[in-house]
Write the structure tokens for this entry.
Amino acid sequence: MATSTTKVPAGGTPPGPPGEPSARGTARRRGALLHRLDIKGAPYAFVAPFFVVFAAFSFYPLVYTSWISLHDVELATLDVMEWVALDNYVDLWGDSRFWNALRNTVTIGVISTVPQLLMALGLAHLLNYRMCASLFFRVASLVPYATSVAAAALVFTMIFERDFGMINWALGTVGIDPVDWEADKWPAQVAISTIVIWRWTGYNALLYLAAMQAIPADRYEAASLDGASRWQQFTHVTVPGIRSTIVFTIVLSTIGATQLFGEPLIFGQGPNGVTGGADNQYQTLGLLLYEEGWKNYQMGRSATVAWAMFLLLILVFVVQRLIKRLRSRTS
Amino acid sequence: MGSLGSVRVRASAAVAAVGALTLVVGCSGGDDSVTGGGKKDGKTVITMGLYGVMGIKETGLLEKYEKENPDVDIQAEIAGDEQTYYTALQTRLAAGKGLKDIQGIEIGRAKEITETQADKFADFSKTPGTDHFLPWKESQISTEDGKVLGLGTDIGPMAVCYRKDYFEQAGLPTDREEVAKLWAGDWKKYVEVGRTFKKDFKGDDVAYMDAASGLFNAMVYGYPEQYYDEQGELIYQTNPAVKEAWNLAADAGEDGLTAKLRQFQPGWDPGLANGTFATAVCPAWMLSHISEKAGPANKGKWDVARAPKGANWGGSFLGVVEQSPVKEEAKKLVAWLTAPEQQAHIFKEIGNIPSSEQALQSADVKNARSEYFNNAPIGQIFGAAAQEIPDKQVLGRKDGTIKDTFSQGLTLIEQQGTPREEAWNTTAERIEKAVG
């Protein structure tokens, strides 16, 4: 806001010749001034809401979090802050729970993202065919995305329950021993990934579908004239055609996977949710942050985890950028 | 045309800017009362924050009070899980916003509240008619300079709940007196009975007890000192009581005597309903949970026997927030809710044992029987157990968190087959982190 009001007078109308103050002149000058303000100021005013909200709810917390992370603070006594410089970061680096959480975040991220995007691609391809009730199928595929995390996670938790869950019951009917989905590491990670996959596949599929429909039909025509099979058309026309969308969904899923929190929290239920299992077997970085802040009530250490996550994301994108630049240079 | 367009643009730009400002300002505004309570339209509104089944709302006491005091309107909000509730309470105390006039305080948090939040709660030390409590109950919520931050609701004397039908199938006695004799005086005998049960039980898939953590809590809470000593130093590493409880609970877990469940978590409830375990160490307040979750189908199958040793597991207080605009009215309500008659009423309805000595002595409590639990004389059983609770109990700041961490450590042994030394070390490491 401040920028728009300070900018205008700086580039204001040149002062009129002195000694000639006429009413019409001032009116015209004021009109011109307002006109300038419109042209120059209005865009700032329109984008202001976003930036004001961003400053209040994102930038300020970001800065304040970094300030807290340099202190020893407890939730119960937020006004008592003890300066510890980078101690929290050093401790975090040496903390096996952090590396465990990082590993879990990566493995759950891979188990959930890769099948999810592949399935979305396949689903989009199918939805792209001409068929009856296509609108119904398109809407239906978006329904999981519209359900709340809490509801979805809770239902899946019941399905994956050890003693009376549906999946163990189904396994039992074909003679497979029940799996302790919560207590064992990989089953737990698979179960959590299932929730993520179920929620996001349809959403990604619709993004792909939109991109696919923007591919000109004559490319397919040309390909089929050249004798390309359906599969070749898919790999050589469709996939390159929606490449930028694929990159976009990968970026989005990576961010989502890094921040994974609600699904494992609800899946674990109660104290085990907060710590990501009794053995931290599915504790993600998001859960570690929550455990430090809202179980141990150590706000300083919690803020440190938050910043570590932020820096990690930045690191990932810097590396990705570098690889991209190196690639374009070599080609 | 141009001028019309520019006017519209100008107007909407102004609206956008103002909108942005109100978005920011909007969150710092709010109503004048920090607790949501206050005097509105001639009525006194009192808000309450509770958790679990404290019996205050469930047994109709609030409606009764409103009927007797037509100018009072009580709004109670009940969280299911105490840990979630306490986390929110901490956040709100820190922010000084979103609090209720009356807040429930669990025993595991009492020390932290008296040490760090004493100035945020009103003092009950001069409230008349509040000298009927067990002496140790009120000392737990008092500060060093004599401020009393709340009044006691219930206490948690312990017994053992058991399935008569399963005991019969295992060739064990079923009468509650004889069952109590099996393990009288020593928790080790309780585990020993478990080994017999495991050997002789004919059916499938029934464990002797629900979770090792229940046994651990029952043992630890039987001692005056648990995780902290009187100076507030952590002593769980060297306290023989903790080590003994840990080892016995680990024995039970390693020998497969437990159903590997986590108490109060959803897997535990279907376990009750489907009868996957034969016993559970049950504080008085757990009876209502068992009868509700096990359901009418299991009525009469459960019974209650005296525990090997007395102990106090759980219990709560009601405190009034200092900032409350209706502080005096809220204090009056708390004094009424915790008065002997009301505590006896809650006990009769759902089985929470009174923390009021006077209520414990009343005929209503002494002669109470539980229809669900095979007509067990719960008034006698828990009343006697209440007498066995150590008169002095040292509480510590992070008692609640440490208890949860130990429960999780035992889960490691039960579910993951972690060796007990390793599980102990992991637990100790986590406690170090939690206490900061």
User: Anything to note?
Assistant: Strands of chain A lie at 71-74, 77-83. The CA atoms of residues 72 and 82 of chain A lie 5 Å apart. Chain A has a mean pLDDT of 88.
